[in-house]
Design a protein that fits this description.
The protein is mainly α. It has four domains: 1-58; 72-156; 157-196, no CATH class; 207-313, no CATH class. It is built from 16 helices and no strands. The longest helix has 34 residues, at 282-315. The radius of gyration is 31 Å and the shape is elongated.
């Protein structure tokens, strides 16, 4: 049995109930810390919550409760209490921050909990969105808040929210190709393939430097081929053929903009070969196959020229009887899951 006598000796018998309550709460909090450090998070939660009922003013109790809930959160669990733990963790961290507004650990774990749970909990995704927007409103140069927001848009596939957020920036700076790339990535993760392709295309058309423009059109082509090759179930039939055409056109534009652009030729070749399997008639398949062969042949000749030039630059012609040296050319293009340490 826990004794109240130390508090009685200090404060007198008139505060018996209050003294015992404080001692009991702090003893339970210590037991909770011991359970937490032993990775017995459910027991820790029970101890912390019992302590809160007795004395909510026990130091760091809400913080440690947040850590424990964060540690048991599992959106894939069959147990409702595991899936609900994220909301409880956020609430605990917020209660702690009301008492200790400057606690960086609580701020960090609140954000980690929001980001971890947002793809599975719409309520917490909405809270995360408002939280990060508020952070940026207070400090528009808060790069961490901006990155949190981008991560939220990607993980939760919130493309429309992303467009709404970034549109003002694009209106202000119409040649902001980095923002366009972010929107392309978010659209892709949101399974909005055409929107993603359009952002990549707009990005290429925006730049003025011809070599940079060629590189960005080449990236449009690689994006199209990667989708068709690695995610064949995502775009099918007429849409797949349209995507192959857009990727091919992008590669051909890159070839016109940059002399001897073998990498773009290789991907144009690959996209024409994709078209062979998608074309509805034999004549179109024959055209695509011949065009693919021509591009592959030209790309091979350019790559051989590069290899020979590299060898000559490194050591000139090889000595009689000595093996030639030089690299082989190859076509181009070919957070913690546990909460923080309990605080005493």
């Amino acid at each position: 049995m826990r004794s109240c006598w130390p508090i009685l000796a200090l404060w007198g018998a008139g505060l018996l109930t209050t003294g015992c309550t404080v001692i009991e709460a702090r003893s339970l909090a210590r037991e909770g810390n011991e359970a937490y450090l032993a990775s017995d998070y459910r027991t820790a939660i029970l101890k912390y919550e019992e302590a809160l009922k007795l004395d909510p003013e026990t130091p760091n109790l809400y913080l440690n409760l947040g850590y424990a809930y964060f540690s048991v959160y599992d959106p894939a669990s069959e147990k409702p209490e595991d899936r609900a733990a994220a909301k409880a963790a956020v609430e605990a961290f917020e209660r702690h921050l009301q008492k200790v507004p400057g606690d960086d650990s609580a701020k960090v774990f609140r954000i980690k909990t929001l980001l971890k749970s947002a793809p599975f909990e719409k309520e917490l995704a909405d809270k995360a969105l408002s939280t990060f927007l508020d952070m940026l409103k207070q400090d528009p140069q808060d790069h961490e808040a901006r990155q949190y927001l981008i991560t939220l848009f990607i993980d939760c596939r919130r493309y429309e929210d992303a467009v709404a957020f970034f549109q003002a920036k694009l209106d202000e700076k119409k040649d902001d190709i980095e923002t366009m790339k972010i929107l392309a990535i978010i659209a892709d993760k949101s399974k909005q393939t055409q929107a993603a392709l359009e952002w990549y295309w707009r990005r290429a058309e925006t730049v003025q430097d011809q070599e940079k423009k060629a590189t960005l059109f080449y990236e449009v082509g690689t994006y199209a081929w990667n989708l068709l090759h690695y995610q064949p179930d995502r775009v099918k039939g007429v849409d797949a053929l349209k995507l192959a055409d857009q990727g091919t056109e992008a590669c051909l534009r890159a070839i016109k903009l940059k002399d001897k652009y073998a990498e773009a030729m290789i991907y144009a070749n690959l996209l024409y070969l994709k078209r062979v399997g998608l074309e509805p008639d034999e004549q179109s398949r024959f055209f695509s196959q011949n065009r693919a062969f021509e591009l592959r042949k030209t790309a091979g000749e350019i790559m051989l020229e590069r290899k020979q030039a590299e060898e000559a630059a490194k050591g000139g012609a090889a000595a009689p009887g000595a093996p030639a040296s030089g690299p082989e050319a190859a076509p181009a293009g070919s957070g913690s899951e546990q909460g923080g340490k309990p605080s005493n």
